[in-house]
Amino acid sequence: MSASFDAKALAQRLFEAQRERRAIEPLTAERAISEREAYDVQWALLAEHLAQGGKLAGKKTGLTSLAKQRQMNTNEPLYGYVIDRTILADGAQVSRADFIHPRVECEIAFLMAGRLHGPNVSGSQVLAATRYVMPALEIIDSRFAAFKFTLPDVIADNASAARVVLGGSARSPEGLDLRLVGMLMEINGELVATGSGGAVLGHPADSVAWLVNKMAEMDAGGLEAGDVVMAGGLGEAFPLEAGDYVRAEFAHLGSVGVRCV
Ligand code: 0L1
Ligand code: MG
Question: What is the rounded CA–CA span in Å between residue 3 and residue 99?
Answer without folding.
Answer: 29
